[in-house]
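Colleagues,

For the teaching module next term, I've prepared a clean inverse folding example: a structure given as tokens, and then the sequence designed for it. I'd like students to try predicting residues themselves before seeing the answer, so please don't circulate the second half yet.
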């Protein structure tokens, strides 16, 4: 149940057009936030030259964004339940648009990273809140399912479009234009939200968990910073060892604290569901592979093969097309109860992509690279629907949003770790942005992630997994916290 304050816009029960506008606003916000993970990749060499940024500086341009989004997604969702979803959504659009404008004006790499943090603070308020707005706008289960399908498709489309659009804008206008595109769309969404989106709150919002949130941020930041800086400082440097120690201590304290909370930031009981727990691992693995490979390949195409930004973006077209084609097919497989098949296809395609990329250098035939990119697009197109379905399947409606937020955070965490991990291979091979050879390490990581996705797809879809979903659903309904 939700309550709408007096004077807030309301949606008539037959207001299909108006509900469609609300859905369009929510989809546009998801499109922008997700696209900003990928649109900057093709612009990285230009940013590096213009702002004199080293490799770790370019890594932070991406990871500062994904790290903040991963850290604050669940906090944003619970805050919106308490203070009002429309209010938090409007705040998110404002911060995201302002952060994008400031990114386009950044005079240095450090300033760009700090502006990306502001941008991500706004972005973290959009995705989980948009899902809640959709759920409270489309009350009929069948209509809600269709609306969520459209919402999810916009995320896949944005991942596919981002690198191509980034390449065209970087070559034709300059790298700063990849941030300009967010401003008019964000402001238009803000104006429409004010006029059309109704205010709503949860009847029984969860209490805040400031200590859990702080420990989560410390853990993720310590791990990411340590992985990024280790190639430069040395893996045995005291600062690096201390960073790994801080990440481990933060994780241990977070788990202990969350077990003692009546309403934890991360409900550890969720992980008793085998499909949900494996879906979080699959999300981390898939997006580690995706973001790491995309970061590396955009540098390779421009620094090793000396392609223009637009041509580099065009080389990523097979990935985009494969994602767009395979995403709805994967959704149909999941709807037909063939989640295992979708995940196995995703894992095998991902591993195959890594195998094709082994030994990639300046002399590698372009057809082989394009085939690897197409195979990778098949993998990413097939993997998202099973992750989303596992997050909400069997969960009570009151808990579905939290479970969905957990897998969304896992995607962002994977995106953060992918860039950090790949940077360790690149740093060891070249010590900078100018790459002469990429070695086997990044592609062996890609193969390993693919095999893990396939193995978990088999393990998480049997009778025992289905029984665990039912057991967790009963536990959450019978023992509310």
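(Answer key — instructors only)
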């Amino acid at each position: 149940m939700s309550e709408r304050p007096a004077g807030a816009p309301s949606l008539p029960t037959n207001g299909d057009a108006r509900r469609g506008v609300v859905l369009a606003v929510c989809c546009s916000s998801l499109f922008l936030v997700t696209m900003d993970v990928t649109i900057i990749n093709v612009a990285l060499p230009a940013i590096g030259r213009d702002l004199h940024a080293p490799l770790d500086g370019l890594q932070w341009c991406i990871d500062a964004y994904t790290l903040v989004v991963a850290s604050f997604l669940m906090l944003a969702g619970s805050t919106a339940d308490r203070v009002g979803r429309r209010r938090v959504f409007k705040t998110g659009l404002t911060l995201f648009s302002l952060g994008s404008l400031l990114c386009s004006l950044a005079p240095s790499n450090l300033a760009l990273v700090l502006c990306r943090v502001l941008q991500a603070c706004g972005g973290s308020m959009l995705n989980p809140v948009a899902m809640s707005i959709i759920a409270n706008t489309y009350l009929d289960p069948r209509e809600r399912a269709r609306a969520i399908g459209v919402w999810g498709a916009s995320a896949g489309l944005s991942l596919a479009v981002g690198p191509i659009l980034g390449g065209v804008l970087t070559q034709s206008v300059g790298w700063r234009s990849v941030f300009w595109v967010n401003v008019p769309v964000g402001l238009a969404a803000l104006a429409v939200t004010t006029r059309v989106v109704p205010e709503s709150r949860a009847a029984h919002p969860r209490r805040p968990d400031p200590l859990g949130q702080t420990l989560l941020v410390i853990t993720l930041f310590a791990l990411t910073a340590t992985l990024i800086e280790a190639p430069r400082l040395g893996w045995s440097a005291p600062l690096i060892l201390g960073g790994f120690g801080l990440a481990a201590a933060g994780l241990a304290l977070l788990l202990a604290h969350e077990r003692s909370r009546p309403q934890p930031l991360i409900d550890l009981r969720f992980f008793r569901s085998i499909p949900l727990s494996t879906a979080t691992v699959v999300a981390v693995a898939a997006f580690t592979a995706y973001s790491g490979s995309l970061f590396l390949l955009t540098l390779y195409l421009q620094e090793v093969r000396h392609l223009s930004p637009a041509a580099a973006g065009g080389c990523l077209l097979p990935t985009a097309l494969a994602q767009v084609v395979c995403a709805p097919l994967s959704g149909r497989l999941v709807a037909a109860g063939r989640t295992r098949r979708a995940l196995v296809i995703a894992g095998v395609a991902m591993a195959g992509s890594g195998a094709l990329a082994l030994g990639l250098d300046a002399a590698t035939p372009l057809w082989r690279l394009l085939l690897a990119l197409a195979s990778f697009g098949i993998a990413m197109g097939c993997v998202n629907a099973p992750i989303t379905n596992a997050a909400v399947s069997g969960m009570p409606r009151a808990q579905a949003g939290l479970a969905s937020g957990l897998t969304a955070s896992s995607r962002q965490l994977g995106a953060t770790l992918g860039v950090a991990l790949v940077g360790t291979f690149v740093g060891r091979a070249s010590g900078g942005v100018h790459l002469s050879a990429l070695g086997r390490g990044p592609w062996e990581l890609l193969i390993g992630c693919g095999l893990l996705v396939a193995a978990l797809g088999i393990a998480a879809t049997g009778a025992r997994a289905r029984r665990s979903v039912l057991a967790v659903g009963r536990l959450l309904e019978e023992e509310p916290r």
